[in-house]
């Protein structure tokens, strides 16, 4: 749905030009919610702006539904632009208009008539959870509610693609949760393909299906979030999984110590007790924790194993879908 091929973008500066994007290629599947993640200055906003046609790359191609947008002009370009909505970090709202009036504005610009416009505004206000606030002005709302008005305004014209640059920036944790709930509903109920940028792993954990990790303008990794987590050495796993801190002393009482990633209800709930009883070994969780990616529970545990058949237990745990690896400083022959 969104394909970016070999995108390079630089900005002039007094010394050398700043290379904001270096040969970046990404693929966002239709209907997916793709998170572009990376530290400040990594190039996330520049990438979003290039896809939104707000910035012209030095080299490379942006395709929307297979169409090379740089090759379009006139009517075709306007049609494509209309399908792409942008939620900017601090978009100005019309201060003198109500919440409903703000959401209605883009429909008025398109000449959508009264009853149809009212129906669509009603649908959108319900989607963003602001039906009760329809008659209020932006100044009467919290920052998070204003962000949802902007989201409603972006969605009013039924876009196929939504680009959201740091959608939770400057919004408190509870209100950020409400913004993410709306984005989740937009994906589920409207099937809109979304690309969002964020520095916040919690945003990815909560709603992203796919992720691209940017560092200093380079894409260092991309793919399905759950697939990437399955490799504990991946950038995504290191950035998004619960961290593990244990001492040598904690590990020393076990015959064997490994780190394991368990994905999904069956794996998280049943695998370790089952291995312990089948092979008559002790399997203890000595570090790490449990989190959720969307609805999927994911555990990142440091395990201590004790007993005669720890090797067989580890092999069985692996065969049943867990991702197990040795801890470099703590020994365990079977996990190597
Ligand atoms: N219009 C511009 N003119 C000059 N340099 C720019 C411009 N826009 C971005 N840059 C530079 O390009 C690099 C990437 O910036 P960008 O805003 O894309 O990063 P980011 O990952 O979105 O960062 P943040 O998370 O802080 O928003 C940075 O070094 C930034 O200073």
From TrEMBL:
GO terms for cellular component: plasma membrane. Keywords: Amino-acid transport, ATP-binding, Nucleotide-binding, Transport. SUPFAM superfamilies: ACT-like (SSF55021), P-loop containing nucleoside triphosphate hydrolases (SSF52540). The keyword DNA damage does not apply. Pfam families: ABC_tran (PF00005), NIL (PF09383). GO terms for molecular function: ATP binding; ATP hydrolysis activity; transmembrane transporter activity. Gene3D superfamilies: P-loop containing nucleotide triphosphate hydrolases. Residues 2-241 form the ABC transporter domain. GO terms for biological process: amino acid transport. This is Methionine import ATP-binding protein MetN. It comes from Amycolatopsis taiwanensis. The lineage of its organism: Bacteria, Bacillati, Actinomycetota, Actinomycetes, Pseudonocardiales.
């Amino acid at each position: 749905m969104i394909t970016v091929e070999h995108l390079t973008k630089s900005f002039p500066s007094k010394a050398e030009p700043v290379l904001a994007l270096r040969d970046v290629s990404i693929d966002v599947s239709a209907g997916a919610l793709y998170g572009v993640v990376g530290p400040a200055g990594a190039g996330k906003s520049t990438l979003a702006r290039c896809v939104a046609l707000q910035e012209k790359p030095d080299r490379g191609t942006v395709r929307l539904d297979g169409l090379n947008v740089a090759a379009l002009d006139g009517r075709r370009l306007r049609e494509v632009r209309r399908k792409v909505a942008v939620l900017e970090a601090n978009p100005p709202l019309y201060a003198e208009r109500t919440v409903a009036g703000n959401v209605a504005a883009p429909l008025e610009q398109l000449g959508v008539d009264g009853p149809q416009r009212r129906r669509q505004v009603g649908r959108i206000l319900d989607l963003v959870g602001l039906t009760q606030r329809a008659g209020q002005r932006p100044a009467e709302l919290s920052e998070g509610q204003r962000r949802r008005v902007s989201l409603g305004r972006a969605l009013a014209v039924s876009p196929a693609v939504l680009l959201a640059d740091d959608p939770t920036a400057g919004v408190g944790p509870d209100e950020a949760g409400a913004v993410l709930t709306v984005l989740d509903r937009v994906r589920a109920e409207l099937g809109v393909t979304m690309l969002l940028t964020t520095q916040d792993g919690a945003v990815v954990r909560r709603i992203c299906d796919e992720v691209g990790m940017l560092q200093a303008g380079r894409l260092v990794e991309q793919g399905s979030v759950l697939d990437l987590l399955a490799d504990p050495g991946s950038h995504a796993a290191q950035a998004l999984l619960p961290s593990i801190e244990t001492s040598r002393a904690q590990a020393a009482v076990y015959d064997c110590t490994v780190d394991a990633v368990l994905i999904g209800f069956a794996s998280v709930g049943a695998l370790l007790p089952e291995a312990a009883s089948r092979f008559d070994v002790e399997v203890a969780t000595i570090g790490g924790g449990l989190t959720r990616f969307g609805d999927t529970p994911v555990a990142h545990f440091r395990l201590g194993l004790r007993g005669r058949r720890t090797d067989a237990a580890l092999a069985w745990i692996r065969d049943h879908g867990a991702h197990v690896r040795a801890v470099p400083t703590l020994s365990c022959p079977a996990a190597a």
